[in-house]
Amino acid sequence: MKIGNLVLDNPLMLAPMAGITQLPFRRLAREAGCALVVTEMVSVKGLVHGSKKTAELLMSHPSERPLSAQIFGADPEVMKEAAQIVQGLGADLLDVNLGCSVRKVVRQGAGAALMREPEKLETILKAIRSAVSLPLTVKMRTGWEPSGEQAIIAARIAEDCGVDAVAIHPRTAIQGFGGRADWSVIARLKDSVAVPVIGNGDIQGPDDVLRMQRETGCDGVMIGRASIGNPWIFAQALDLINSRPTGRPDFPNRLDTVLRYIEYSVDHFGEDRAVPMMRSRLGWFTKGLPRSSRFRDTIARLKNRQDMVDAVHAFFG
Ligand SMILES: Cc1cc2nc3c(=O)[nH]c(=O)nc-3n(C[C@H](O)[C@H](O)[C@H](O)COP(=O)(O)O)c2cc1C
After folding, report:
1. How far is CA 142 from CA 38, 110, 164, in A?
2. pTM of whole model > 0.70?
3. 151 and 169 Cβ atoms separated by less than 8 Å
4. What gap in Å lies between CA 184 and CA 169, rounded to an integer?
């Protein structure tokens, strides 16, 4: 699959998830075979004002490349300036958020709000396109009503402005995460634009990747929640795509992944910040396994990296 001039190894992508798809998590996804990872959404205002916290969201590691950086905002000039900053920082791809429906974001006219303002969307995308040469994508929802018309209009505008691919999570902005993603909207989008279409929403297991490709004709498949604590979903889906036998990860494999997660988190955040973060995150990887609630109780009390590593060895060993 190709996005602009960027050639991807396979059609699998990690969905951006604020608070989750930080650098350590993205590295695990890439190591499991996911072809493209995306940062959490990054405020353009924070970027142009030089916020340290915002800049941290764009920190990267060679092993996760190619990296897409997702920005959100509403002001064309600020969006343009932020896009230039992202390009200057060395991201491989730039993604514009048209899907976030959180009130704080929509109220400022950003995220999903742009799907009901086609003229403003066009101005923003033209401004960004004129300012950067990076491959450019948008990630949208169905819009504010379920028909999918707003998505088709937004995707055509994006294509006309020189956007290189369109990702869609086909739920309405009002729906939030309720109900089901309407994959028929992905299929309609695929019929409406010539640029690659990336389908997203409700992939729960590796089989769903093939089903989404079959039912919608999408070029890429983006996985979000099902990858939390489960980066192996990418390896399993790749096996299915390549008609190889696949299976669930065994305990040594899980142990190795969780140890790498701790190591990458300490590398990136430093031990003092990483340890409290890992207290909840390690639980993602043991969910549903025998004795996982006792493991969670144990790690909730741990105060340093070595104790965490020991607890993980004890659990998976
Ligand atoms: C905790 C969380 C944070 C999210 N943050 C973002 C974000 O920063 N940018 C974005 O475009 N979508 C965000 N999303 C939406 C996901 O990218 C994705 O579209 C959605 O979860 C549907 O895909 P899934 O069913 O595979 O999870 C977020 C979703 C979750 C659950």
Report:
1. 20, 15, 19
2. yes
3. no
4. 11
- Burial of 204 (C-beta count, 10 Å sphere; 0-12/13-18/19+): exposed
* Nearest atom (ligand 1) to Cα of 97: 11
**Residues with catalytic roles:** 100
307: Cβ contacts below 8 Å, ≥ 6 apart:
none
| Statement: residue 317 has pLDDT above 90 | no
Q: How many angstroms is it from 223 CA to the middle of ligand 1?
A: 9
125-183 pLDDT per residue, tens? 999 999 999 999 999 999 999 999 999 999 999 999 999 999 999 999 999 999 999 99
Q: Is the dihedral of CA 114, 124, 165, 100 positive or negative?
A: negative
218-249 pLDDT, tens digit each: 999 999 999 999 999 999 999 999 999 999 99
Q: Which domains does the chain have, with CATH numbers?
A: 2-241 (3.20.20.70), 251-316 (1.10.1200)
The amino acid occupying position 90 is G
Which residue in 192, 138, 197 sits closest to 11, CA to CA? 197
Q: Which residues line ligand 1 (CB under 6 A)?
A: 15-20, 40-41, 70, 97, 99-100, 139, 169, 200-203, 223-226
Helix axes 271-284, 292-300, angle to 10 degrees: 170
Give Cα separations from 124 to 71, 79, 83, 99, 118 (angstroms). 12, 7, 11, 15, 10
Structure-token pair, residue 131 = 């300012």
- Report helix, strand or coil for 195: coil
Q: How far is the CA of 116 from the centre of ligand 1 (A)?
A: 20
21 CA distance to ligand 1 middle (Å): 10
Cα torsion 305, 311, 315, 317 to 10°: value is 80
pLDDT per residue as tens digits for the range 68-101: 999 999 999 999 999 999 999 999 999 999 999 9
